[in-house]
Request: fold
Amino acid sequence: MKVGFIGLGNMGSAMIGGMLSQHIINKKDILGADSFPPALEKAAKHFDIQTVSDNHAVAAFADYLILAVKPQTAEQIIKEIRDNISPAKVIISIIAGKSTEWLTEQFAKPVKLVRVMPNTPALVGEAISGVCRNELVTPEEMEQCIRILQSFGKAEEVPEHLMDAVVGVSGSAPAYVYMFIEALADGAVAAGMPRNQAYRFAAQAVYGSAKMVLETGEHPGVLKDQVCSPGGTTIEAVKVLEDRGLRGTVLAAVEASVRKSKDL
Reply:
C-alpha cells in the first residue's frame, strides 16, 4: 500500500505520525506534497518521508490519496490532479463541507471516494473521525481506510447525510471543550489556585469524565447524578449551570456549526 498526502499541515501530519507509530505503513511508502515549503521541510525532517512540491507526482504515486487541503483550494487542486487518478485509486478527503457528490463533479469521472471528518485531537492520537464512502469503494478498501484513521484515534462509519452533524458534535467540539476548560480554570484561579495548576486540574477532570462515559457505557445523566450528593456542592453548581442555560447554549452552538458546515 502506497499512501500520498496533498497537504502536510496539522491534520496531514497527525495522520502520518499515527500511521508510522502504529506501524501500518513503512515511511518509504508515503509521499507528501504541500505548497508551503516550510511544511515540506518539517514533514521530511520529522517523519523522514519523501516530500515533493508536485501534486501530480503524489497523485500518480498513491494507492490511497489523502486530500488534506482547505475547502477554498480544493477545486483547483482536484483539477490539477484528476488526470492522474485511475479507477483503482482510493481518494480519502478530509476537506471540510465537501460531499462525495461535489468531489465526483470536480474529478469529472467516477472515482473511489471516502469522505472523513476528523478532529484536532488527532495530534495526540485521540481523534474521533466520521467516515462515509461512495458505492465504488469496496468493503475491503473501506476497512483499510478505517485502519488508517484508527492509527490516530477512533473512527466510525456514518451515513453521509450525518456528516454535518459529525462536524457539530466532534469536528468543532474541541473548541467548545477548550473554552469550558478555560472557564473551569478561571473559577479555580478566582478561588486562589495558580493558573497552570488550575489548567491541569480542569483538563484532567474533563479527560477523566469523558473516559468514564466511554468506558462505563453509562448515560451521562446517570454519571452526573452519581456526583450530585443531596444538598452538596455539585448540585449547587449544576443548578447555576441549568439556570444560566448551559444545555441550550451548547445545543445552539452545535446547531450553528452544523448549519455552517452545510453552507460550505
The mean pLDDT is 96. The chain has two domains: 3-165, 171-263.
